[in-house]
Amino acid sequence: MRISDTVEAISADLAALGSLGDERTADAARRLAAAMQATVTARLFDVLGQAAAELSEVLPGQRVEVRLVGGEAHLIVESAGGEPVPEEVPLGDDSGARITLRLPAQLKAKLEEASAREGLSVNSYVVRALNQQVRSERGFRVGHRLSGYGRS
Predict the structure, then answer these.
(1) What gap in Å lies between CA 101 and CA 130, rounded to an integer?
(2) How far apart are CA 101 and CA 120, in angstroms?
(3) How many C-beta atoms lie closer than 10 Å to residue 77's C-beta?
(4) pLDDT tens readout for residues 35-48
């Protein structure tokens, strides 16, 4: 994501709000917008850093970092040992295998709630959870609960 695009949009919003007043107010808003760009940029990096730290806490055995590359901020996921996490299987790939899965109604309801919170379809949510579990150091074991958070 280009941080500068977001900062410019916030500055434009502030200047537009200032134009609702008289010319003095509009001029003051334009000057404030220009003066705040460095501060807004720093605050956005703080937010990204906090998000990366929170994600690192909930992703077992993984660490999330914010890297600035050519003016763009990237969230990078690495294993705790510093190795990049391998790419996941694309979730929207229709060429994959299909299975029929019978779930207890209560589990299905919980999956629907969890996937809705994540903004995913139930299928994408389940595929992501299974993919993460299979890739983890523990591997996939029948009889153990799947828990935790995924990444998109």
Answers:
(1) 13
(2) 18
(3) 16
(4) 988 888 888 888 88
